[in-house]
Design a protein that fits this description.
single chain; about 260 residues; mainly beta; Porin; 16-stranded antiparallel beta barrel
């Protein structure tokens, strides 16, 4: 089922099950610069629940704020344009989580501080700067095809495989295609928003999961605008406990 930041578990769980695309040179998505648009809003409707998320950008097309009331995330970049800090604040309460990112050769160290607890994990990169392993409370391995993540395999701390996802894509433009924020952030968005947001170049059409505790099969049907960006998607998620449906709509702003 879809999740929002409001329901996220601590970052230790993210390292067990999520992905972080972070290139050696702060890789951003390989862009087609025609009809450039940036994602402005996402509205997720599931039964009677509606989640609205809004993004703000700087002049270079990098996300500076992500607003999911009552939460707001603020992004900090250094002089080289690298994302080095992400702070989540809750209205009337203040900071609820601070994440920092540091490079060390072909690895990325990510640290989270939340409610007095500190969690960390490591991302191992290949020669092209793409993450191939995520090491934390649990471990995962990533495979790629045509610029998109095509398979995610999960392992226990004792290197025993306990499940995987395989992912198929369309040939249309991802909502993130022209965003200059480093790719790893969109994998964080995948964890907090759900599978429709995993595509960095294109959009997922089917995701098949096979785990020790059960299987899942998710399918996505899109409506696109005249420039090839998705504006609506109907999602069907099927697992051993039942089938679920929800819809997502997108709006854009010219870059």
């Amino acid at each position: 089922m879809i999740m929002t930041k409001n329901t996220l578990t601590p970052i230790c769980v993210l390292f067990a099950t999520s992905l972080f695309l972070f290139g050696c040179k702060e890789q951003t998505i390989d862009n087609d610069e025609s009809n450039v648009k940036l994602l402005k809003t996402i509205v997720i409707e599931e039964d009677r629940d509606i989640t609205a998320i809004t993004f703000e950008y700087d002049s270079q097309g990098r996300i500076t704020k992500q607003m999911e009331p009552p939460l707001t995330a603020t992004f900090t970049y250094n002089s080289a344009g690298e994302l080095i800090k992400l702070i989540w604040e809750r209205e009337h309460i203040g900071i609820v989580e601070t994440l920092t990112f540091a490079k060390n050769g072909n690895s990325i160290l990510m640290t989270s501080e939340s409610s007095g607890n500190v969690y960390s994990g490591t991302i191992e990169l290949d020669a092209q700067g793409l993450p191939v392993k995520i090491l934390g409370d649990g471990n995962s391995a990533l495979e790629y095809q045509n610029g998109n993540v095509s398979k995610i395999t999960f392992y226990s701390n004792t290197s025993i495989e306990y499940g995987y996802y395989t992912i198929s894509y369309d040939n249309k433009k991802s909502p993130w295609l022209h965003c200059k924020t480093p790719q790893w952030y969109f994998m964080t968005a995948f964890e907090s928003l759900g599978f429709p947001f995993i595509g960095l170049k294109n959009n997922p059409t089917a995701i098949e999961g096979d785990f020790a505790e059960g299987w899942s099969s998710d399918h996505f049907v899109y409506t696109y605008d005249n420039d090839g960006y998705p504006i609506n998607v109907a999602v069907t998620e099927t697992e051993r406990y039942g089938t679920y449906h929800y819809t997502i709509s997108y709006t854009y702003t010219p870059k």
